[in-house]
Design brief:
The chain has about 110 residues and is mainly alpha-helical. The chain has one domain. The chain contains 4 helices and no strands. The N and C termini lie far apart (about 55 Å).
Amino acid sequence: MLTSAFLCRLAKMIALVESHQSWLETITYQMCQMPYAQQSKHLGGPIGLLKMSSTRAAHEVADEAVQIWGGRGLTQTGMGRVIENFNRTYKFDAILVCPRLLVCAGGDRG
């Protein structure tokens, strides 16, 4: 049954994912069009903001998915296993992806 609460949660998750995907594609395009020196100068900050914002968006999406699935979103097997896995591991992406992105964009000035 499609209720307005369900549709609102789903729309929120879609909006978060789509907007961050667009932002990521924009930064990727800029990286492909700039020489390395310009990447180092201009893209370190936007990549850091994207990383921080993507992590917060992932948190929101994980929370909304658990709310939609209810108790099934907390089980490690069955119908909720994907939701539970994402909810448990999305923070790892923020830690593991960051150094690679900053080095690619030249944001690592160390």
